[in-house]
């Protein structure tokens, strides 16, 4: 044997003798992995987001084919799975990350399939010697699953030379490279700020293979989301209330701090509060089930949005 040749194991020799025309039961592999169940769940959970769902299906297909290739002894480098999710608040980034963790687990790319969602405060300390233990503890908790870092750009503050975020980034970079077969990292945040973050951290940028940009929802999609949320809580709009809520959305979408599905959820919570107070104030001797499950137009018209008063913020205040 020459110096450049490597002796094959019996298993490798057996795999190398598999004919090129060997059939593959791809349908059976998909069925056994139960990945389709996760993709169907994603379709049910999220209205719209067709480009995102398509991209997730493409990634799932890549992983499935990679798994089939390994079964036939066709070895290639492991696919890079670290990702970046960009978009405005309330566009489904966390939900998609959860389903991505399930897909990775069912295909054997992570051991546990759980999602550890964190922010800068979970990773970066406030004094010397505090950051490394915090970051390592988070990584330990996330191992075997997916680490979702929301507003990841806050890790890097170039204007503050005493900031300890860079230490956390360096630890993350090492783990993303050396333990990528046991942990997938998803960075999330506003698109423009993530671009600036990557420009200042080329090492991080080079380790992220998949960039998914989440679009804002249309008013029609937000109505569908609202009806789905109400159904889950066993409520419904009256016909007039649905029209009023559509008008509410058109006004609210033009105001500051609009957070897509998050704003819809908060608006519905306030509508339920007004409905409860309305029913209580009426002092009815008998309430019907219809009364209890129906959101009426007046429960929405009482919103400050119709009074041209800025509503409460539906998203976290930016960290200074």
From TrEMBL:
- The annotated regions of Basic and acidic residues compositional bias extend over 10-20
Question: Where do the segments described as Disordered lie?
Answer: 1-21
Where's the AAA+ ATPase domain? 79-218
Which UniProt keywords are listed? ATP-binding, Nucleotide-binding
**InterPro entries per UniProt:** AAA+_ATPase (IPR003593), AAA_lid_6 (IPR041627), ATPase_AAA_core (IPR003959), CbxX/CfqX_mono (IPR000470), CbxX/CfxQ (IPR000641), CbxX/CfxQ_RuBisCO_ESX (IPR050773), P-loop_NTPase (IPR027417)
Its Gene Ontology molecular function terms?
Answer: ATP binding; ATP hydrolysis activity
Q: Which Gene3D superfamilies match?
A: 1.10.8.60, P-loop containing nucleotide triphosphate hydrolases
Question: Which PANTHER family does UniProt cross-reference here?
Answer: AAA-TYPE ATPASE FAMILY PROTEIN / ANKYRIN REPEAT FAMILY PROTEIN, AAA-TYPE ATPASE FAMILY PROTEIN _ ANKYRIN REPEAT FAMILY PROTEIN
Matching NCBIfam families, A to Z? cbbX_cfxQ
The family this protein is said to belong to: Belongs to the CbxX/CfxQ family.
Q: What is this protein called?
A: CbbX protein
The organism named in the record is Candidatus Methylomirabilis limnetica
Q: What is the lineage of its organism?
A: Bacteria, Candidatus Methylomirabilota, Candidatus Methylomirabilia, Candidatus Methylomirabilales, Candidatus Methylomirabilaceae
